[in-house]
Amino acid sequence: MAPHILRIDCPDEPGLVHKISGVLFNAGYNVLDNQEFVDLEAKHFFMRTAFEGAAAPDRVIPYLQQVLPASAVVKLATTEKQPVVILATTEAHCLGDLLIRHYSGELPAQIRAVIANHETLGSLVKQFSIPFHCISHKDLDRTEHEKQVIEVIDSYAPEYIVLAKYMRILTPNFVAHYRNRVINIHHSFLPAFIGAKPYHQAYVRGVKIIGATAHIVTDDLDTGPIIAQNVIPVNHTVTAAAMMQAGRDVEKIVLAKAVKLAFEERVFLHGNRTIVFE
Amino acid sequence: MAPHILRIDCPDEPGLVHKISGVLFNAGYNVLDNQEFVDLEAKHFFMRTAFEGAAAPDRVIPYLQQVLPASAVVKLATTEKQPVVILATTEAHCLGDLLIRHYSGELPAQIRAVIANHETLGSLVKQFSIPFHCISHKDLDRTEHEKQVIEVIDSYAPEYIVLAKYMRILTPNFVAHYRNRVINIHHSFLPAFIGAKPYHQAYVRGVKIIGATAHIVTDDLDTGPIIAQNVIPVNHTVTAAAMMQAGRDVEKIVLAKAVKLAFEERVFLHGNRTIVFE
Amino acid sequence: MAPHILRIDCPDEPGLVHKISGVLFNAGYNVLDNQEFVDLEAKHFFMRTAFEGAAAPDRVIPYLQQVLPASAVVKLATTEKQPVVILATTEAHCLGDLLIRHYSGELPAQIRAVIANHETLGSLVKQFSIPFHCISHKDLDRTEHEKQVIEVIDSYAPEYIVLAKYMRILTPNFVAHYRNRVINIHHSFLPAFIGAKPYHQAYVRGVKIIGATAHIVTDDLDTGPIIAQNVIPVNHTVTAAAMMQAGRDVEKIVLAKAVKLAFEERVFLHGNRTIVFE
Amino acid sequence: MAPHILRIDCPDEPGLVHKISGVLFNAGYNVLDNQEFVDLEAKHFFMRTAFEGAAAPDRVIPYLQQVLPASAVVKLATTEKQPVVILATTEAHCLGDLLIRHYSGELPAQIRAVIANHETLGSLVKQFSIPFHCISHKDLDRTEHEKQVIEVIDSYAPEYIVLAKYMRILTPNFVAHYRNRVINIHHSFLPAFIGAKPYHQAYVRGVKIIGATAHIVTDDLDTGPIIAQNVIPVNHTVTAAAMMQAGRDVEKIVLAKAVKLAFEERVFLHGNRTIVFE
Q1: Residue D220: pLDDT band by 50, 70, 90 thresholds?
Q2: H/E/C letters for each residue in A63-79?
C-alpha cells in the first residue's frame, strides 16, 4: 500500500510536534519520514510527514483539527502520480527532458497534455502518445488566447501547470485562476537579469557564472517564490549564443527538480519564500 | 562556408606556433579560434585551430609537413556533423537525452542507429525515426555476440561509438577494433568505486558527493582516459536507490558533454590523460 | 541564556518523536530547532534538538530514559565553546584558517593548543597567543613519540583533536585513546586516491575534478566515517604541483566545516557512515 | 632565472599570432605557456605569453612594435612578487586569509601595508609584522579622509590596492587615481543584490544560492568588470545572519583568487568585461 503524505502549515506554538506525532501514533500509523521547520522570524511552523498504515488516512483529520491552531492548513496527499499539463513554445530541451523522464517512469506526475502556441513541438509530443494542442496566439488578443488555453488546461484538471520555456507573458487573470499552481523556468539566476534576453544581459555584464531558476508564477513577472536554482561557470570565451546553449542543461535539470519537489508535496509557500523539504 | 578544424599533436620544439600559424597565414586563411598546450613534463605539443577561407583546406597539409616533426599527427576535420552509433541496454536517461539533443539539432553528430541487447528501448528509438537493432546476448557467447554488434556498427561507419549505459563488458578485440573511438559513461566519480554497483558502494562508504565519468574505453575496464566528470552532493538521507536516480542527471549531462567535445574535435589523448580544449 | 542541545541515537520504534517531544513539552522547554532521521535500512533513529528554558536541562534525562529503549545513547550538550587541540606538521593553510576563524570568534570551539612535529609553524601559532608544542619525532620510535603527544593533548582535555595536515600515521593505540574524537583532513576525494601523494595520483590518472575529505579517524587509514567533502574542477593545464596548491583551498574549507559540525553536535556516527544534521 | 610575462592587447588583424611568436622565436626565447583570445564581436586580440631566455626581455619591444598595430598595448612583466596595499574595516576573514597566504608564500604579491578606518584589525596585522595604519574617518569629510588614505597608499607604491571588506564608498577621484588597479570583493553574486545588505536581500528574496564577486572598482558602485565569482547553495533554514557567515568562505576564496589572477598578469579589461587567462 502506498504511503500517505501529511502537510501542515500553521502559526508556531509550543508542543506542535508532540501533538501531531501523537495523533499519528495513536491512530496506529507508522511514520516513514518526517521533516519540520519553524521559521523563528515569522513564527510559523511547517511539517511534512510520510506515513503508512492500514486505516484510511483521512480519519486523522478531525483529531488533527483538535490539536492545531484554527488557521492551520492541513493537506493529505497521496503518493500516486497526479496530472500535469505542460505549456511550451518552440524550444525542445525542457519539454523533451520531461517527456523522457515521464517515459521512463521517473517523473512523479502524469503528463496529460502539452499545449503550445506554435506547431513546432507537435511531432515530438505526439510520438510519445501524449495529446498536443497548438493554440496559436496569432490574430487573438491576450485575453482571448488565454481563455482558449485555460479551457484546454481545465479539461485535464491538472495539479500543476508547468511552463517549459513558454514564451508568453501571463495575465493576472491566468495567474489567479491557477494560484500557486504554475511552475516556470526562468533562464537566469534570479534576481539577476530579470526580464528579456538574460543570456545577452549576462554576456554584456561579463559574469563568470550563469544559472537558471524554477519558481512559482505570481503577478510580478520573474519574482515569484523560488523553488530551485542552479548555476554553471562561464568565461570570456563563451558568447551570448553559447551561454544560451550551455544554459539549457541547467534549465532542464532545475525545472525537472522543481516539478519533482512540487509533486512530491515538498514545497511550502510563505510570503515570497519557499520551504523545501528535500 | 563552414569553418575547418586543424588538429596537431607532436613532440614539442621551439617555434611550432610561429611555423604553424605562418602556414595558415600565408595560405590566406582567417583563424577564428586557436588553442595550444604544451605538456612541459611530457614535452609534447597539442594544437586545435578553427579557420576559414575560400581555398580547399587540404592544400595546407604539405606545407605543415615541411615545418612539423616527422612524428606529428595532423588531422583536418570538417565542422559538418559526423555519424555516431549508440549502444544501450534498458535505461532510457542517457539515450533519451542524446535523442532529444539530436532532435533539436543541438548534438554535433548524426545518430545513425541505436543497438541494444534488450528490446526495451526499441519503441523510444523508433519514434525518433532512428534505426534500432536489438541484438540479444542470449544463447550467444561473448565473441559471437560482439561479432554481430560489430557487423551492424560497421555498416553505419561511425566516427565514434557511444555507450549510453550499455551494460556489457567489451572484449579486447572490440576495443582494438574501435581503438580510441568508444566513449563510455561510468556511473561513478572514477577512480572511486570502480566496478559493479558504484552507487551501492558509495552508499556503504557514506560519501557526501557522488558523480559520473565519461571516458574513452580501453582494455582495462573503467580506467580509460577521462573526458569529462561532474558531481552532485548527497547526504545521509539519500539511499543507494535514490543515489542511482539522482546520479542519472549527472550521467546524462556528462555523457552529452563528452560526445560534444569529441565530435567537435576538442579531445586529444596522450597516454592515459586527455587534453580537452573547451 | 544559551540554548541546550539534546542528542538521541537508538534503535527505531514507533512513537519516538511523540514521546521525546512530550518530555520536552511537559518540562516547559521551548524547542528552537529539531531534526530527526530514521535509517530505514538499519532501523535506527537519530535526533538533535536545540531547546531553551529556565529549568536545568539535565532534569529531562530520567524522563527520557523512561520513554527510550534501554540501548539509547542520550547526550545533553551545552552551546558553550568546548576545547580543541590541533595537530599539524609544516603546512600553514588549514591551521592558519582555523586560527583566523578562532581569532574572529567564528569557530565554535576554543583552540587550547597546537602540537607539531616540526618547529615551522611555531611562530604563526605563538603570534595568536596560543600555546605551541613542538614534539619532534626524531630519534623517537612511534610509540614513544605518540606517548609524549598524548600527554600534552590530555593536559588540555579537548573534546576533539583536529589533524590539520598532520603528516604522521597514528597507531591503533592513539586512535583507541581518542575513539571517534579525531578529525582528519585527507587531501583527496576519498575513496579515490587513498594513500600517499593523492594529487600526483590524480594528475597521473587525468581526473577532471579533485577534492578533499574530512573524516573521523579509525584504524584503517583514510577510511573512517566521512563528515564533509568538497571538490573543484581541474583540467589538463593543471600540474600535480598546481593541483596541490588549488587543493589547499578545498582542504581548509572542508576541514573548518567538519570542525564546526562536530562542535555544534551535528554529527552522529553509525557504523562507517555519518548522519550530519546541517 | 624567472620567466617573463608578455601581455598584448590590440585590435585584431590576420597573422598576429604568427608575427608575435616570430619575434620571440627569432630572439631565441623559449615559450613556456601561451594563451590568446580573439573577441570576434569586438574584433579585439588578447595574448599572454610566459617565456624564458638569457637575453634581456625588453629587447623584444621594438620588434613587437614593428609588427603590431599602433594602438597595441604591450606590457612586459616580471614574475617577481609586486607590492600590494590592503584596505579593510573590521572584518577579519578576507584580510586574515590574505595574511595567511602571504605568510606561507602562496600569495603572488608582497603585502606592504594594511590601512583600516578602525583599530579593530590592528593587532592581527601587526602580529604578522606588517605595517598597519588606522586612518579613522571620524570628524573628516570623505575627501579629506581619502586624501590621507591616498598619501599612505602612495608611499608604498603598490601595483594593486585590494579592498578586503573595506566598508567605505570611494569617490570618483580615488577611483581615477588608481584607475583599474583597485580590486574589491562584493558580498553577493553580482548583479543580484547590488547595494547594501545583500545577504538580507537574498534572504528576503528566498534565493537558493548565494555568492560573492571580485571585481575591478569603477565609478559605478558594484558594477565594475568582474574577475571572479563563486557560489554556495542555501535553503530555507539559513537565516540572513547565517548566510552572512556562510558567505565569508566564498568571499575570501574569491578575493584571493582574483588577487592571484591580477598579480599573475592574467586579467585583461575590455570595456566592462574581463578576459581572464586561467
Answers
A1: confident
A2: HHHHHCCCCCEEEEEEC
What are the angstrom distances between the C-alpha of D192 and each of A190, C59, D189?
Answer: 7, 49, 6
pLDDT single digits (tens) C201-216: 888 889 999 999 999 9
Tell me: pLDDT of B102 over 90. yes
Q: If you average pLDDT over every residue of chain A, what do you get? A: 94
d(CA C132, CA C35): 38
| Residue B8's pLDDT band (cuts 50, 70, 90) | very high
pLDDT at C66 > cutoff 70: yes
CA distances from C212 to A68, B147, B198, C184, C189 (A): 46, 44, 20, 10, 5
Crossing angle between the packed helical segments C60-67 and C16-26, to the nearest 10 degrees: 160
Distance CA D189, CA D229 (A): 7
Is the CB of residue C128 less than 8 Å away from at least one CB of chain D?
yes
**What's the 3-state SS for A209-273?**
EEEEEEEECCCCCCCCCEEEEEEEECCCCCCHHHHHHHHHHHHHHHHHHHHHHHHCCCEEEECCE
Please give the domain boundaries of chain A with CATH numbers for all domains: 4-78 (3.30.70.260), 82-276 (3.40.50.170)
Q: How far apart are CA A150 and CA A2, in angstroms?
A: 32
pLDDT at B148: 98
Choose the mutation target among B36, B39, B47, B60 for the interface with D, i.e. most D CBs under 10 Å: B36
Q: Indicate if A222 belongs to the active site.
A: yes
Check whether B222 has a pLDDT greater than 80.
Answer: no
pLDDT of residue C1: 61
Q: In this model, does residue D204 exceed pLDDT 90? A: no
Look up residue B104 and give its three cell numbers. 533539436
pLDDT at C196 over 90: no
* The three three-digit cell numbers of residue A24, written as one number: 499519528
pLDDT tens track for D245-267: 999 999 999 999 999 999 999 99
Report the DSSP beta bridge partners of residue C133: C115
Residue D31 and residue B14: Cβ atoms within 8 Å?
A: yes
pLDDT at A2 over 90: no
Contacts of residue B93, defined as CB under 8 A and 6 or more positions apart, other chains included, come to: A100, A101, A104, A106, B165, B248, B249, B251, B252
Convert the pLDDT of each residue in C1-39 to its tens digit: 678 999 999 999 999 999 999 999 999 998 989 999 999
CA distance B203 to B189: 13
Where is A113: in which H helix or E strand? Answer: strand A109-116
- Residue C116 corresponds to which cell in the numbers above? 607539531
Whole-angstrom distance, CA of residue D34 vs CA of residue D17 = 10
**Cβ–Cβ gap C274/B209 under 8 Å:** no
Does the model's pTM come out above 0.90? yes
Asked if B52 is an interface residue toward chain D (Cβ–Cβ < 8 A), one would say no
C17: nearest CB among A34, A38, A233:
A34
Element (H, E) at B177: helix B172-177
DSSP state at residue C57: G
Nearest to D54 by CA among D30, D21, D83, D37: D30
What does DSSP say about strands D44-52 and B209-216: parallel, antiparallel, or unpaired? Answer: unpaired
Beta bridge partners of D30: D52
Nearest-10 crossing angle of helices D60-67, D16-26: 160
